[in-house]
Design brief:
The protein is α+β, with helices and mostly antiparallel strands and 377 residues long. Among the domains are: 112 residues, Ubiquitin-like (UB roll) (Roll), CATH 3.10.20; 95 residues, PH-domain like. Helix content is 25%, strand content 22%. The chain has seven helices and 15 strands. A seven-stranded antiparallel β-sheet has the order 10-9-8-7-13-12-11, covered by helices on one side. It is elongated.
Length: 377
Amino acid sequence: MSLRSYSAFGSNFKNRHNFANSSNRSSYSSIHSYTKSEQYWWNYTDNAKGTNFQRAVSGDKRPRFEDDTWDLADSLADLYLKVNEENIATASKFTVCKDPVNDIDVKKWIEEDTSHGFIRVFVPNGNINSSRLVPCNLSTNTQRICAQCGVAHSSLHVQFNGDIIARMESTDHPLAIQNEFLGNLGYTEPRKIQEEGYNPDLSYLIKFYLGKPVQDSTFTKAQLSSVILVRKGKLIYQWVQRLCAISGTRLFIHRDKFPSSKKSIMQLAKGYVEEVKFKDHPNVLKLTITLHGERSIYLSFTNTITYSKWLKRVQKATAKLPTKADLSKCNLEFLPDTIFINEDLRTLNLRHNVLKERPLEEDIHTMGWLDDLPRYV
């Protein structure tokens, strides 16, 4: 079986890889509204009624973010945290799985047929010592290799020349892609191409991962957390002590005073903040949340320093959102949900990502797919 007969496999993947890095990038790197000023790309139902607050900032009079570009580091940190959790699970399965190369004679496998070869797979953020050689042939697809390694069929990723990391489809043929890549570099002898498959230095040119590495540690949550008194309304509800945290435009309220407890998440964007006073509670912030219906939360502070810190953070969280966002070079497969709450967003940079379209079997109510952005011609 010749290498040439399987070159189409690599071409198909390369075309799809190029599409993810050029076609999608050019279509979505700059998005501008073509509708009237009162219309937006997407709409969330907002049943909030106008309410006058003593010191609230409302409507278009709300201050804008200090920076013209929207800081989405908090949302990106959540996405990366989820990826890291998946990587840990994948790495543990990969470690306990039996190494298939121990059951095969490398030289004998190569000599049997020119369609035979090896790919080297790495765990995310792992080194050469944690990698594994996987024997396969030109017709071996991604799903079978993942099964050999004991991981989910969609776990395999590929990286060319240290560039963007793309998830491989279950029907892709990794060895055919690797061989075609080497052929494009000038390798012409089938035996030499086969031998390069088990050369450790090949990983500097093409690298397969079981999982998606997250090497950028700059996206961290800048949380402000405190144990404070919380009240959900003026009537009936009592003050209760809860661990609360604010990160970006989201408020987290735990069920008790411990960070391990279950928490509810409230989106403060498009909301309002007001300084109010209650009997025996001189430092109180009233947060009015307007997404999906209006409701209010009261936060009471015993420490004026903590109160001042929270006031500043909440004011920023409820400020008018910027019209620009830059998510370039974030190696994203999905968009953070926070993007879709900003109806004023006019420019969104998505260069150097690998955004995915929603599969037919996927729930239509999930957000973050490439399809969720409008198409502009």
